[in-house]
Amino acid sequence: MSEAAAHEAIKKTIESNDVVLFMKGTAKFPQCGFSAQVAQILNHLGVPYKDVNVLEDQGLREGIKSFTNWPTIPQLYVKGEFIGGCDIVREMFQAGELHDLIHQKGIAHTNHG
Amino acid sequence: MSAETRLREKLMVALEPTRLDIINESELHAGHRSSPNTGESHFRILIVSPMFTGVSRVGRHRMVTDAIADELKGSIHALALSTYAPGEAVG
To answer: What is the pLDDT of residues A41-60, one digit of tens each?
Structure first.
């Protein structure tokens, strides 16, 4: 996939899904500890999300970095907005801010703790 | 020059930190499938800098990764990052 095509695909994905996690591996089988941590946090909050495995396409793997101007994976998007990578998502989760964000954006989730 | 030394120099210049911990965790990941096994692949960095005051989490991380962009394109495979402004509780 070319960079332009990757950016187009990414844009489409984050516009058509409330919560998107670009990760190495899949939600069920993460292939990187950082990606696994974010998947685990989203699972804990009970928020449905679209997982995109960047390892499946080299163009996508590089394209997501230039799309966001963010050099690492995973990357979490909520309602089309870039939230952060693993460290930021974990800090926000621990501070209760991630739940607040999901709630404020009106995204259904099962765990309100 | 080791990757750790290069990171330290660049971050000292770019962010004028009051505390900068750089921990090389490459050994911990030496076995895993995608590890480059260079001994300079996985780093954990903690930075306290007055330049982070009033900057969002994403903004802080971008300041760090911009400063070490060359390293991130090269040998560094993974980076765990904690960023604090002076006065914030260091976790």
So the answer is: 999 999 999 999 999 999 99
Across the strands, what pairs with A51? Answer: A21
Q: What's the CATH superfamily of A3-104?
A: Glutaredoxin (3.40.30.10)
Q: Which residues face B83 on adjacent strands?
A: B47
Domain definitions of chain A by residue range: 3-104
Residue A4 has pLDDT above 70, yes or no: yes
Q: Span B3-84: which CATH code?
A: 3.30.300.90
Q: For residue B33, give the chain A residue with the closest CA.
A: A31
pTM of the model as a whole: 0.90
Q: Which residues of A72-105 are buried (b: 16+ CB within 10 A; e: fewer)?
A: bbbbbbbbeebbbbbbbbbbbbeeeebbeebeee
Give the ipTM of the model, two decimals please. Answer: 0.85
Helix (H) or strand (E) holding A19: strand A19-23
- A101 in B contact zone (CB under 8 Å): no
B91 to chain A nearest CA, in Å?
10
Contact predicate B4/B26, CB 8 Å: no
Given a cut of 70, whether residue B32 has pLDDT beyond it is: no
Let me know: does B47 contact B17? Beta carbons within 8 Å: yes
Kindly state the tokens that stand for B11. 């971050």
